[in-house]
Amino acid sequence: MESTQDELAQPILLPKQYSSSPEPVSSELEEVLSNTDLSYFRRIGSATLIELNILFRLAGPAVVVYLLNNVTSMSTQIFCGHLGNLELAASALGNNGIQIFSYGLMLGMGSAVETLCGQAYGAHKFDMLGVYLQRSTILLTATGIPLMIIYIFSKDLLLLLGESTEIASAAAIFVYGLIPQIFAYATNFPIQKFLQAQSIVFPSAYISAATLCVHLLLSWLAIYKLGLGLLGASLILSLSWWIIVVAQFVYILVSDRCKYTWTGFSLQAFSGLWEFLKLSTASAVMLCLETWYYQILVLIAGLLENAEIALDSLSICMTISGWVFMIAVGFNAAASVRVSNELGAGHPKSASFAVIVVTSTSFIIAVFLAILVMLLRHVMSYVFTGGTTVADAVSDLAPFLAVSIVLNGIQPVLSGVAVGCGWQAFVAYVNVGCYYVVGIPLGSLLGFKFDLGVKVIN
Questions:
Q1: Which parts of the chain span the membrane according to its record (predicted)?
Q2: H-helix or E-strand containing 331?
Q3: Per-residue pLDDT tens for 36-46?
Q4: What is the pLDDT of residues 32-68, one digit of tens each?
Q5: 442: closest CA among 316, 297, 232?
Q6: 252-258, long-range: CB within 8 Å, 24+ apart, which pairs?
Q7: Around Cβ 436, how many Cβ atoms within 10 Å?
């Protein structure tokens, strides 16, 4: 990535018109941490208050954005679930088994923008943010073409993996409607990271909230009034993601907050693509190894005895886990922005202190939510389906879900720290060892050989 490193290494020469440019990263936290006139405990107390204020202004709206986007996708699954158990299993397999494949790849590749835009913003290289946004969009759109082919042949792939013909056929219908969503991802994630690097998160939250309302109305009309079924549900989901993309880009064009970071389309976006691709690939591998792990769990559940109930119960637990995971992903984004901005501004103490505060905060929230899951374990499945058999299966899985929630409160945040530092390749090696060398083989062994079923897979 010599080209991108050189761009960040160039001297920072801001012309006069940049005098009203975006506010630089505050040095207040660094000053407090370096102030030896204060006692240790007073330094830590003051620094904690400063960092929590910054963190929640970043993480709060980011959590809302990821939750609302996730609820937009999951609401489609809920609508389908009330059509019947087959439709719930099909939408779960399509949403959590196929769609998450492209979600993980696109979000992972988009995190390269997070690293470079965050450090460029901290270093006051404002004009480079728009260039990085365009480079990432070009690469992700090109990546969407082979993903589209995978979607087209999803039925054959699911049958090859051992899924039943009935479930694979229904899931394929759902997946066909998600093809436009691939290219919405290709544009959305670079835009989202571009805005987050500048601590612009509230507009995305408002856009996501408005889109969710529109999505719920259109989904209700398409599924229940027009009878368009699984295909109509997924097409509406794709449309909703494109509404988010268009609205966010319009905001970039008209907002004064982006006038120095977005200066229009540039041919410079086509230079340095190879170096940018290498960083994007490392970012994608880091996140894909994690998201594909959950995808593989869904596929394995489809091979168990009584696969429909196994898929339904596991998908409900993973949906709930996904909602909680979105909170951690919001803190992941905040951690990445804080670390990359502070490193770009040359504030190492602030960067390390931000890591401690964001990780501790996310862990405390995860513990609270895990307790809540245990208290609601007998009733939470009725949001998705009315079947008592599925409800009993979800109740049995609740303790395992609670443990997963606590662990997911920490791991994504640490990944965000790695993104802020540009350590994606290191995290990829860690994910390979934890998820694929230990997790999947052990879960498969206990689930099939020792007949412990979906509990050990969860």
A1: 138-161, 167-188, 200-223, 229-253, 283-304, 316-339, 351-376, 397-420, 426-448
A2: helix 307-344
A3: 777 778 888 88
A4: 777 777 777 888 888 888 888 888 887 778 788 878 8
A5: 297
A6: 252/191, 252/194, 252/195, 255/200, 255/203, 257/22, 257/198, 257/200, 258/195, 258/198, 258/200
A7: 14
